Amino acid sequence: MAAAVGRICGARLFRNTGIVGPQVCQLSTSAQGWTRNRKLLLSTLGVVGGGVGALLFALEQSVQASGSEAHPPHQPWSHDGWFKSLDHASIRRGYEVYKQVCKACHSLQYIAFRNLVNVSHTEEEAKAEAAEVMIKDGPDEEGNFFERPGKLSDYFPSPYPNENAARAANNGAYPPDLSLICSGRKGGEDYIFALLTGYMDPPAGVTLREGQNYNPYFPGGAISMAQSLFDEAAEYSDGTPPTASQLAKDVATFLRWCSEPELDDRRLMMIKVIGMFSLLSAVVYYFKRHKWATLKSRKLAYKPVSKK
Amino acid sequence: MSLWATLNRTVFKRTSTFALAVASGTFFFERTFDVASQAIFEHINKGKLWKDIKHKYE
Predict the structure, then answer these.
(1) Residue numbers in B near A271 (CB within 8 A)
(2) The Cytochrome c domain covers which part of the protein (chain A) (predicted)?
(3) CATH homologous superfamily of domain B3-57?
(4) Across the interface, do B57 and A88 touch by the CB < 8 Å criterion?
């Protein structure tokens, strides 16, 4: 190893230049310019890197403009922003919407009842929610599968036993699992809100197949999910008026929480990171001044040695 | 004698006391830092967090 390094760097490495020598060399730009090859390499790298970046940006932009679907407008989510947590009252209402409406067709298989504890429900309430559903369990001692009331540790049961059953019940379309849908769709909660509230009559010239509906926010426009949110389509236990847009907003917030249960922690971490890094940059700034003080206040004097 | 010099003499000079200072300094700094960050977070998000609404359900 040492031999290889020595061969590459030559004797330069072993020459004793003192502590100041190398620093002074790096300080002056004119004394030791870049070699031609180095310049060539770096500028090629810069051009290639910039070009690839610009190409990716252009491709991404053209994809956005090429589709026929409407772009979901941005909504003022209360969790939008570096330090903003999710609105937990809204998560709780969104869970009620999921339970009363979406659960009929969509599974939420990566969320367990225990996840609700101290997020939207107390432990007692979450236990009660779990006890309301029947979970398939087994095999018991005789080898039979049986149904029992849910426990905190159970995941949300799915409405259909498998994908084929789900397709058969929905005109061949598969209602996707909603656990990660908010992160899995472009536009996130804006898209979900726009999709749920954006149903309309198909424009002239668009023909829909049996069981399809027109929604300009869905890629292609023809969606197999019928409009499910209307005013008073669900009931809220906290007395909020259940208008269609309120239901859509709450279920979108709930689905954002399902996709990113750690969102609140990340927002808190942001505050900590900013605090910690400002302390560290103060230290680094002080240290830089400290180290450069000698260099900046240095005077070099050349004393001709008289020949005697 | 200045505070700095006193501190230097009594704490930083000996490795044992210096190590102790580092350990306890870390502990207290981290504790205050966490508590302060949490307080800022809860202030910004007042009314939205679970702890703000849980009294309704207990």
Answers:
(1) 37, 40-41
(2) 89-241
(3) Cytochrome b-c1 complex subunit 9 (1.20.5.260)
(4) no
